[in-house]
């Protein structure tokens, strides 16, 4: 069995046969991804029960992933003690934000391996200190109007983050803004939360993205700072000029993250259901459909502000309804 993406030649609109580098072989049974609304300890317990406490291989969304069984559920591990261990490793105070909840999330990512969870949290702290904090400081104003943004609160309370490539403007480093917005979305949602990310690759502008180093830095953080933070990543209408970037990034992604990565095309309604199923209700679904239609009709960033107004008003209405409950 194989999973791959179809790519579209941007000038002709024709589907281009995927290269073998973008094909990932898998040969394991399909398993369900963990649900966000279940406690972290329960999610670990389910992995453990399903595999008899050992490790197993699973196939989620057509990409190989080692789902495994939790050796030590978070309930059996002193999360606060492990958090203190991480904090003590950084005399400069860089790990002050680490809590037991971060440890519990990382224990899910490591199938209950306490020492490995601590090691990955140390990597996360170092990455935030050495990379992300600088990005956040440099892009503080630009983040407020960035094309990459939270557009809605989707199923199970997950923030949905969206990027429309056609709306990128000169001077914006998309990879850096991506990391900053993911961080802010998850900070608001909590240390155990996950998000859905939608990359609408229509109108991708290669000349604005010649430096792929920020993307590579982000990719390397997905196994530490952003570990267990994604529910689904959906990429729409991949053009040929974006394939080389994807090929450079894929080997850096953890298997668990690759399993959550899906490539879809607007021209195939059955594929687009992968995206629409992430919506919390029909109202959100219709907003997302309208957003995609607006950006598909654009050949430049001239319509960017109109799409931002659409998503801003929708998100505000969602939050208002939530506050009134």
From TrEMBL:
Domain of life: Eukaryota
Domain CRAL-TRIO: 186-276
Ranges of biased composition (kind: Low complexity): 60-70
Protein name in the entry: CRAL-TRIO domain-containing protein
Source organism per UniProt: Polarella glacialis
Pfam families in the record: CRAL_TRIO
Segments of this protein annotated with the region Disordered: 43-74
InterPro entries cross-referenced by the UniProt entry: CRAL-TRIO_dom, CRAL-TRIO_dom_sf
């Amino acid at each position: 069995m194989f999973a791959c993406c179809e790519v579209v030649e941007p000038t002709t609109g024709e589907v281009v046969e995927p290269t073998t580098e973008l094909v990932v072989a898998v040969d394991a049974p399909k398993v369900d991804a963990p649900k966000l609304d279940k406690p972290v300890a329960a999610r670990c317990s389910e992995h453990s029960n399903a595999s008899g406490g050992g490790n197993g291989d699973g196939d989620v969304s057509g990409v190989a992933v080692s789902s495994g069984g939790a050796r030590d559920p978070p309930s059996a591990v002193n999360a606060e003690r492990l958090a203190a261990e991480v904090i003590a490793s950084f005399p400069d105070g860089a790990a002050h934000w680490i809590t037991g909840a971060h440890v519990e999330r990382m224990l899910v990512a490591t199938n209950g391996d306490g020492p490995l969870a601590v090691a990955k949290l140390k990597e996360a702290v170092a990455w935030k200190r050495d990379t992300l904090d600088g990005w956040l400081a440099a892009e503080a104003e630009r983040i407020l109007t960035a094309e990459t943004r939270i557009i809605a609160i989707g199923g199970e309370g997950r923030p949905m983050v969206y990027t429309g490539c056609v709306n990128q403007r000169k001077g914006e480093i998309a990879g850096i803004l991506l990391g900053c917005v993911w961080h802010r979305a998850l900070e608001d949602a909590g240390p155990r939360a996950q998000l859905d990310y939608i990359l609408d690759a229509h109108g991708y502008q290669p000349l604005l993205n010649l430096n792929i180093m920020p993307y590579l830095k982000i990719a390397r953080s997905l196994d530490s700072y952003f570990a267990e933070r994604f529910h689904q990543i959906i990429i729409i209408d991949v053009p040929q000029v974006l394939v080389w970037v994807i090929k450079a990034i894929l080997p850096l992604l953890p298997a668990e993250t690759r399993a959550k990565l899906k490539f879809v095309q607007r021209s195939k309604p059955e594929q687009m259901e992968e995206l629409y199923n992430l919506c919390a209700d029909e109202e959100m679904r219709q907003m997302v459909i309208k957003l995609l239609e607006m950006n598909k009709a654009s050949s430049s960033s001239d319509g960017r502000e109109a799409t931002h107004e659409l998503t801003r008003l929708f998100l505000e209405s969602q939050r208002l309804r939530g506050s009134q409950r």
